[in-house]
Design goal:
single chain, about 45 residues, mainly alpha, about 60% helix
C-alpha cells in the first residue's frame, strides 16, 4: 500500500495513461489512410 503514495508511482501511471491515450488517438488516423504505393528505391 505504500507504493501508491510515492510520487514515482503516480508519475509512471500518469505517463503510461498519457502514452496509451496518445497511442489510441493516433492509431485510427494511421490506419485510415493506408499507402498503396510501392517504395521508391534509388538507382545507381
Amino acid at each position: 500500500m505504500r507504493l501508491f503514495k510515492t510520487s514515482f508511482f503516480w508519475q509512471f501511471a500518469g505517463g503510461f495513461a498519457i502514452g496509451a491515450a496518445g497511442l489510441l488517438a493516433l492509431q485510427p488516423a494511421a490506419s485510415a489512410n493506408p499507402v498503396h504505393q510501392p517504395a521508391v528505391h534509388a538507382e545507381r
